[in-house]
Write a structure and sequence with these properties.
Layout: H1 2-21, E1 52-58, H2 71-84, E2 89-94, H3 100-114, E3 120-126, E4 129-133, E5 139-143, E6 157-158, H4 159-168, E7 173-179, E8 209-214, E9 224-225, E10 228-229, H5 230-242, E11 251-252, H6 253-267, E12 275-281, E13 286-288, H7 293-296, H8 304-323, H9 328-341, H10 346-359, H11 363-376, H12 381-393, H13 397-410, H14 415-427, H15 432-444, H16 450-463
Parallel strand pairs: 1-2, 1-3, 3-7, 7-8
Antiparallel strand pairs: 4-5, 5-6, 8-12, 9-10, 11-13
Helix pairs in contact: 2-5, 5-6, 8-9, 9-10, 10-11, 10-12, 11-12, 12-13, 13-14, 14-15, 15-16
Length: 465
């Protein structure tokens, strides 16, 4: 078994090497004392914004819905994080202060009147969410206030309410952070963020942006463990600086969203998939302002094509490090940097899943990365091949078979996949006929492994008249 594993590892590496050399890169009502009326704002502020607002909503002990232990504690941690970031107004609404009437008044009246045109606004919500169908038959999510039932949208804050609020709000940048599975934004989802001509992140403050980071998708659960939300834990780590993906000292909402999505998906093995969307405008909210010299002296990749080239350079450097048998840690760091420049770079996920399977083993991260590989590189058979090997090593043999069969749908002449299927059927799925069939196809394609030859020869002798 050890020699066969080494054989498959060598062949997988050979397949990845051919991929690289072939150049296949896929790229006061309620504590509103703090809500002072917005002053007239003309011209530009001395800094990025005139005023920064953080509205924190946490509902733990619902009137007619199940409690959410730890929701208020999580919300208070988020409030403190934004105070540390220097937000001027951090206003908190917990349990009864987050009733239906008060939340509707907050979004319909208070915030549109108070927040100015050169301000930034972050709204955080921790509580229940529900779903409904709109008149056109589309599923839409909604936030459940303190005194509303989960299965009744009449008293809730729907996605359409939030969209209307963001259209009416004068704030230059609005970021909604929702620790709940809230969906239905897709009808207004924008095109990808354009960084053409960007000289520094502060130039993004000249363009409007409405962004959403939500904890989970349709049909998923925002996981809580021991009265703590996985999404909030990741969010707080990101806000502390870990989400500064390009390491330039600036933390942008787009970076925070990318970080949270990637980390939560990995931690949940793909079961919880947050969303990171920009639903209006083409700017980006700055959460932490770094040094301007970080961009004026070393602007880094600015346009989408520059970012893709940078991603490819890090990917190829990671591959070279692995090929030379050098630092796996540095290779992994390079792959993470490639993905930060191009989060849809499928082949980088493929190689990272291999690293986490064979070089720096971490099967949970290998699986999470493997799932992203098949998502972003569905035309690369190695994405499914590697995922199959990951499932096999985790003892998930039916899932391994499915992934390997999918690899053959992409490339039905991939001999190494047939060999792996042959051993899987023989050693784990107890299907000798399928094992012989897979080994036979492997040999027909030029394979030479002794086990395949012996298995097919023995089957032929038994079936001979």
């Amino acid at each position: 078994m050890t020699s066969e594993r080494h054989f498959r590892k060598k062949n997988l590496w050979r397949g990845l090497l051919k991929l690289l050399l072939g150049g296949a890169h896929v790229f006061g009502l309620f504590s509103v004392v703090a809500l002072s009326t917005a002053e007239a704002q003309s011209g530009k502020p001395e800094g990025l914004y005139y005023k920064s607002w953080a509205i924190i909503i946490g509902i733990e002990n619902y009137v007619v819905a199940p409690p959410i232990p730890g929701a208020i504690s999580d919300a208070k941690k988020v409030a403190e994080a934004f105070r540390r970031l220097g937000f001027d107004e951090v206003v908190e609404f917990y349990d009864k202060d987050a009733s239906s009437r008060r939340l509707h008044q907050l979004f319909n009246d208070m915030l549109p009147r108070k927040v100015g045109r050169m301000d930034r606004l972050v709204v955080f919500f921790a509580g229940h969410a529900g779903s409904m169908q709109d008149p056109d038959g589309y599923d839409r999510g909604y936030l459940v206030p303190f005194d509303a039932p989960v299965n009744n949208a009449a008293k809730s804050i729907t996605v359409e309410h939030l969209k209307e609020f963001t259209r009416r709000s004068a704030s230059k940048h609005t970021l909604l952070i929702l620790d709940a599975p809230v969906f239905g934004w897709e009808t207004t989802a924008p095109s990808g963020l354009s960084l053409e001509g960007r000289l520094a992140p502060e130039s993004e403050t000249d363009r409007r942006a409405v962004q959403v980071i939500s904890a989970a998708g349709k049909g998923e659960t925002a996981v809580r463990a021991e009265k703590s939300s996985r999404f909030v834990e990741t969010l707080l780590t990101g806000l502390s600086g870990a989400a500064d993906l390009d390491g330039n000292g600036w933390l942008m909402a787009s970076e925070l969203g990318t970080y949270v999505v990637r980390q939560v998906e990995a931690a949940s093995n793909g079961a919880q998939r947050p969303s990171n969307l920009r639903i209006d405008g083409d700017g980006d909210t700055a959460l932490v302002e770094g040094r301007r010299s970080a961009f004026t002296l070393d602007a880094g990749p600015r346009t989408p094509s520059e970012r893709q080239r940078e991603a490819k350079a890090h990917y190829e450097r990671a591959f070279a490090l692995l090929q030379e048998g050098k630092s796996g840690e540095e290779a992994l760091e390079r792959l993470d940097r490639a993905i930060s420049y191009d989060p849809t770079y499928g082949d980088a996920y493929v190689l990272k899943s291999y690293v986490r399977l064979e070089v720096l083993p971490n099967l949970d991260e290998a699986l999470a990365t493997g799932l992203l590989a098949v998502k972003y590189a569905p035309g690369n058979p190695d994405s499914f091949y590697t995922l199959g090997l990951i499932h096999e090593k985790r003892g998930e043999f039916a899932e391994a078979e499915a992934a390997l069969r999918q690899a053959l749908l992409v490339n039905n002449t991939y001999q190494d996949v047939y060999f792996t299927l042959g051993t899987l059927y023989a050693d784990h799925l107890n299907d000798q006929a399928k094992s012989v069939e897979a080994f036979r196809r492997y040999l027909e394609l030029g394979g030479t492994h002794p086990r395949a030859r012996a298995t097919v020869s023995q089957a032929d002798r038994i079936s001979a008249p």
